[in-house]
Each structure stands twice: as C-alpha cells, then as structure tokens.
Amino acid sequence: xxxxxxxxxxxxxxxxTAIGRHEMMRTAAIRCTPLWLLLSAGCSNNTDQAGxxxxxxxxxxxxxxxxxxDLDLVDQLFVADSTVTYLSSEREGVVAGIxxxxxxxxxxxxxxxxxxxxxxxxxxxxxxxxxxxxxxxAGTWYFRRETDEEEDQRGPVTxxxxxxxxxxxxxxxxxxxx
Length: 178
Fold this sequence. Notes:
- The chain is of the alpha+beta class.
- A 7-stranded mixed sheet has the order 1-4-5-6-7-2-3.
- The N and C termini lie far apart (34 Å).
- The chain is built from 4 helices and 7 strands, in the order E-H-H-H-E-E-H-E-E-E-E.
C-alpha cells in the first residue's frame, strides 16, 4: 500500500472532539503516533467501511480489556492480522502482528476469559480526531496498582482506529511514560 507525500490540511479532518475524564468511564492507557503510521493505518486493506461512524464505546471496551486482563478481547479490539502494530511503554521495539500482540499481553498476565486484578487503568484528557480513513485517539493513560503505595504510572497514549466490518479496531497503539 502506497503512501501519499501530500501534506494534510484542515479540510482532510472530519471533526475533532475533546473528551475529559468526567465524560468517559475511568479506565485505560495510550501514547503518541508518528504521522506516517497514521497514514499507513488509514490505507490498510482492512478499511473496508471507511464511512463507518466512530463510536467512542470502543475506547471504553479497550479500557475494560485492560482492567479485566481478558486475552480473548485482544482479537476483538485490534486489527487481527499481521498489520497491527504496538509500541509499549514496557519494552523496546515494535510489537508487530496479532500473534506477537497476544503474546505481549500474556506477558502482562492476560488470560483467556480474564481474571481479577488489583490494578486499574484509565484514560484522561482524550482528544478524538476523525480523518478520512482513520480515527486517532490521543490522551494520557494512568495505571494504579492497589498494593502499590507509589504514585500512579502515567504517560501519553495514541490509539489509531480503522473501520472494519461495521466497527472500529485498533491498527496501532503507542504508549510512553512521563
């Protein structure tokens, strides 16, 4: 899939929405994505329904996945093929492909069907930008361990969603730490 070198203009954006903590369920984490990844995600062969309206409930579903540690949800919430990418705040390098992404989550303790945990993930200061073939969600992730008396972990996050079969799935996720 090729990538255009043409600059993006404000007319390329459908709309931008800012969502604060009080407007979303308290839950997950996110990071920053280079523009070329956004463009390549928007050109994926998986974007078979570019006109599908973005539903912010997919963000809450991702947060719920993290708080339940349900490995089965990885395939439901991410692009489930070799094109999905993930930049973790916990390890160096790009996690590429759904098999590697599943294994990455297993490394965090995710299991089929989920489990009880003493942790909580949530997002704040979300900004949602809808583009022609992708939706970018940027904000700050927070992570708390109930047994930990230290400060909550936090950092920037970016999730790039693409429309697939009537819903939106994460084509790329990027997390970092403050």
